[in-house]
Structure formats: C-alpha cells, structure tokens
Amino acid sequence: MVPRSTPWGTYVRIADELRQRIADGTCPPDAPLPSESELSQEFGVARTTLRRALAVLEKERLIRALPGTGRVVLDPSASNDGEHSGQPQYRRIAADLRDRIMRGELAPGAPLPSEAAIVQQYGVSRGTARQALSDLEGAGLIRSVHGKGRFVLGVAKPSR
Q1: How far apart are CA 76 and CA 62, in angstroms?
Q2: What's residue 123's pLDDT?
Q3: Do the domain assignments include residue 158?
Q4: Predicted structure pTM score
Q5: CA–CA gap between residue 143 and residue 1 (Å, rounded)
Q6: Do 56 and 111 have their domain in common?
C-alpha cells in the first residue's frame, strides 16, 4: 500500500469540519458518528490522521467513544458529569434493566428482552447486550434458563 501524503495540520481541518457538523445539528446529540473507515474515505486521509481529529473532539467533550458502540456526539448544553457518563454502554443497559426490575416493570418470573431485542433497542453489538445481561445475572437479579431465555428473580424489598 502506498502511504498517503497529507498536508501538515489536516487533522485540524477535519476536526473543524466535524465540530461544525455538531454545531449546526448535522450530527445531533446522542447520534453515532460514522465509522473511522467511512470518515477516512470521506476526507481522503489515513485512519491515524482521522484519529487525531477525533481525539481533539473528545478532549473538547464534543464526542465520546463508547465500547461496543463507537463514537457518539455529546449534548453540549447538557452536563457531561451525569450518573452514567463515562460508563461503558453495557453498564448503562444493565442499569436501565435493573431500574425496570426495581420499579416492578419487570416482575419476578418475567422474561427479560432477548439479546436480539436489546441489540435493536439500544443500537449495540450482541456482545455488549450479552455483557449487560451477564452483569445482571452476576448481581443475582436474573437467571438464565438454557434454551428458554433469561428471567427476573424475586427482588428483596428493603426493610423498614
């Protein structure tokens, strides 16, 4: 493969373009950015050049890399110090399901959404969905029945 020759500071130009897209709403908050490969092709640069531009935007807290998801646009008007900020995606999914269990929305004995349903609902990989469910199983909130699915266990009520 022939190395690409890019002018010095190209990553700054790319960061400026992506920053503008975020500012004008072309890339709205919570939306995933295109993949590194897609952006590299669009700007005609090597992935290392693109990664430098993305690192600038991450440092400015305009985007965030989420394991199992990719990079997403942050809401510049919202505080990025929220309860789930910086957590891996599987932990956010597990926290959401845990809240649903604690509120009684998912009652003891009720089936949990399948891995495929979680993938669809949260827009994550199957491995991320599996990891979220494993987290709940490790916490003793659900159990897995081979060939049947995962089910909510009884949740102990806090004593008064």
Answers
A1: 7
A2: 83
A3: no
A4: 0.48
A5: 50
A6: no
